[in-house]
Each structure stands twice: as C-alpha cells, then as structure tokens.
C-alpha cells in the first residue's frame, strides 16, 4: 500500500490500519538503547533512591527523566 492510500484509510477512520503495518520489522529511530555504566557516590545513589521512591519510579527511570529534562533544556 502506498503512503497516500494508507493516509486516506487512516483519515477515513473506517478501517483498522494495523493490518497494513509490518510490525515485526518496525523500529523507533533514535530510540535504540545503549548500556552505559556510571559510578555515583553513595550519597548520590541514596538521594536518587529516596526521590525515586517518593515519586514511585525506579532509580533508572528517575536518572533518565532528569537527564532528558536537562538535555531538552540545553537544546533550547
């Protein structure tokens, strides 16, 4: 199906467009994961854990959120 036809089917909203997608080969550009190791002082890990527990997320999640916020602010 050509992109124009897909857009028309989607815009009409009368048909589920998922059947037209190749979900097995789908990817999210610039969203690939890369593992990195970072050493933090104990006090910082304890503070991260306390804040993560306070808002109900994991340590990894709070680090990612804060880094994303900082990077977004730096880009502006």
Descriptive report:
With 76 residues, this protein is mainly alpha-helical. It has one domain: Arc Repressor Mutant (Orthogonal Bundle), CATH 1.10.1220. 54% of the residues lie in helices and 0% in strands. It contains three helices and no strands. Helix 2 packs across helix 3. The radius of gyration is 20 Å and the shape is elongated. The model has no long low-confidence stretch (mean pLDDT 91).
Characteristic key phrases:
76 residues, mainly alpha
> Which regions are unreliable across 5 or more consecutive residues at pLDDT < 50?
none
Any idea of the CATH class?
Mainly Alpha
Q: What are the secondary-structure elements, in order, as H or E?
A: HHH
Oligomer: single chain
Helix content: 40-55%
Helical segment tally? 3
CATH architecture label = Orthogonal Bundle
Give the rounded overall mean pLDDT.
91
Supply the helix-strand structural class: mainly alpha
Could you describe the largest sheet, including whether it forms a barrel?
none
Question: How would the blueprint of this fold be written?
Answer:
Layout: H1 3-12, H2 42-55, H3 59-75
Write a compact overview of the structure shown.
With 76 residues, the protein is mainly α.
């Amino acid at each position: 199906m050509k992109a124009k036809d897909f857009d028309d089917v989607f815009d009409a909203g009368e048909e589920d467009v998922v059947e037209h997608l190749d979900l097995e080969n789908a990817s999210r550009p610039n969203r690939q994961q890369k593992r990195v190791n970072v050493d933090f002082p104990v006090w910082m890990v304890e503070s991260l854990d306390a804040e993560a527990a306070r808002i109900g997320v994991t340590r990894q999640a709070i680090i990612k959120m804060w880094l994303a916020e900082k990077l977004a602010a730096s880009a502006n």
